[in-house]
Amino acid sequence: LNKPKGVVSASEDKRDKTVVDILPEELKRKNLFPAGRLDKDTTGFSLITDDGDFAHRILSPSRHVRKTYIARVSEKIDFERAKTAFAEGVVLGDGTVLLSAELELLEEDCGQVFKVVIKEGKYHQIKRMFASLGTSVTELRRIAIGGLFLDSNLGEGEARLITREELKLIENSVS
Question: From the candidates 39, 50, 94, 151, which is the catalytic residue?
């Protein structure tokens, strides 16, 4: 699913539309849930499944499945300092120590745009990582889980089934 802003990463919610709610009717079935969460204002690749074992294999913190994001920030930061901090493992304001992450500067204009690759998925992790460096994330989009990238043919809110070969791109990226 190419998740749009304003949609909740859950199978049900009393107040908001969920990723399961917006699936096309032909893809809906019992027991669907998102394998991993995206914040309500984060867009991009959301993997919806009914396979709990598969979800556990790719979400387990010990597996370190890579998740790739594009992040736009509001204030410019020192890229080399940020890259080093991400590589060493950012320490958040509450003392949480994160695993090392990759940071690549993609664009620099009135803000900056980065590619970020993380191996865990803590609460608001990328937003908190950038906040620890003195800037805020204004846009965040997940573009890949493991070796599987979001289908560029999917518009926001659109979804499709993935193939067995695509599943392997995710499962084979477990470290």
Answer: 39
